[in-house]
Specification:
A hairpin with a 5-residue loop joins β1 and β2. 58% of the residues lie in helices and 7% in strands.
Amino acid sequence: MKTFICEICGDAYVGEEKPKNCPFCGARENFIKDGKDANPIVNQEIELSEQAVKNLKTTYDLEVKASALYVCMAGKAKTYEVKAMYKRLAKVELEHAVIATKLLKSDRPVTTEQGCDDEDAENFKKIILLEENATNLYKKFAEEATEQNIKVLFTALSQAEEDHIELIKNYL
Ligand SMILES: [Fe+2]
Ligand SMILES: [Fe+2]
């Protein structure tokens, strides 16, 4: 086995091959490096602009909410597969909130509760709207970023949320 490190969340994946997506934050393969070459964004000293601080705080709020929504949806899911998928996505979204707190040098995320529907179909609709909103918002944040690493971060997050939509659409 080898150690691979995600440039976005900084977590290590140990295995034979580099995964196609980071199992922790969902960043795509191109953000995952051989351990010796990794310089994760969360491990860098970044002088954040006011805009970056504002956008990272918005990211935190959105991700904590998304994570809680996935937890609720996991509780209502009709099949084990969907339940397990939602539980994983809840952890991925929480990881996104953790990234924001690391960069903001603030406390670890406080989880909240979020209501959801009893029906999978209604929840699918709700979460797809949320993920689409996140994808577009992070694209905008990437454009607004003056720091190169913050630009990279929001690009990776935007793609990760886009991939969630693709995944969930398989179940519609
Ligand atoms: Fe990651
Ligand atoms: Fe997210």
